[in-house]
């Protein structure tokens, strides 16, 4: 079969099961999203596989990885590591599913396009709105993480609400680049910075620095737990945090859409997951024990906390930029797809693009200002939206293509079908239970401090 026909308009009777990653990688697959690039217009398909992998890592290693030590402190080392590996396996499969589905259906840019294939107009809106809300909520959590960093470095030089407002302006400026290529270059620096900051905390606490939460004088015990004893609410909030640590998956399909050759996505995704599922979270927990903070960079003592957050700021900025850029581009595609203004250098193109960026940032700013607690906000995002977009959505993608195969007269792969049903069940449980735990936690926070929204308080001392 001609490879270039993959995922286009094959009839039900034609062969659809394609070994998508065995084709020669040098032969690029034309992307069906952005259409033809007019003279002087924007070419979006500029990413090589390694640049793609760096972008994937940066969507994963940013905010989420900073909560992994907290998760281990709740569950204990053994259950925590088992859960870490289990979530990693499921999300790695989901990441690879994004690459397979992109090659089978090159017209799909984001999960809203997937939803349209699976459920028509209603499916498009369900998947699309979930994807959009998820991304802007991640930007909101990035604002909180960045404001925590700025408070730590500056010793709370100004009101936290002022920091968040300044970050919103910075997000508009940094995210306005039309393609992902400049952001992918910045991601190299961001990735090195965030990993270096985590290593600084782990090494410093192991060598000489006490965790910020440990007694300031005298002996102190890490009280490392082999097996924790959390309440149901604590366990589900921590599990939701863990899912968020691997929930860059909704961004993977849009990133694959800007690759020069989407057939190379598989090795980019595997490299990303190999780095993300690393020993960093375990190392920080071993260093700090029960005194680990969320985000983890707050675990160090006063001096090391400033240093680690200072190193991490570029990495957090890049995360904020990527997560603002992607939903803004999704919105622009909804408005301009199928018109020459999508790639042409016109006034309508630029007004639409900048308006989409500003709109995304505005929603993220409101979200970040209303819920100003790091572990709670990422728990809510991970449970309510991240789980559905990382687990259930990917299982439905595979089941959709399996159903097409059955209609075409081929045998169903029952092992794969069973795996998809298992992922659906696990994801649904985490969605329901994790959302409940997060909402209860938010209610508790507001009962203790009704003025925590749009607060000027120093959030670097509250984690």
Describe it.
The chain is mainly alpha-helical. The chain has a single domain, classed as Amino acid/polyamine transporter I (Up-down Bundle). It is 66% helix and 0% strand. The chain is built from 14 helices and no strands. The protein has helices at residues 49-60, 68-75, 77-104, 111-154, 160-174, 181-207, 232-245, 249-256, 265-276, 280-288, 302-336, 347-370, 374-407, 414-448. Helix 3 (77-104) packs antiparallel against helix 9, helix 4 packs across helix 5 and helix 4 runs antiparallel to helix 11 (302-336). The longest helix is centred in the first third of the chain and has 44 residues, at 111-154. The protein is globular and about 70 Å long. The relative contact order is 0.19. Residues 1-30 have low confidence and may be disordered. Keywords: Membrane, Transmembrane, Transmembrane helix. Residues 46-439 form the Amino acid transporter transmembrane domain. InterPro entries: AA_transpt_TM. This is Transmembrane amino acid transporter protein-domain-containing protein. Its main location: membrane.
Task: Write a brief caption for the model.
This protein is mostly helical.
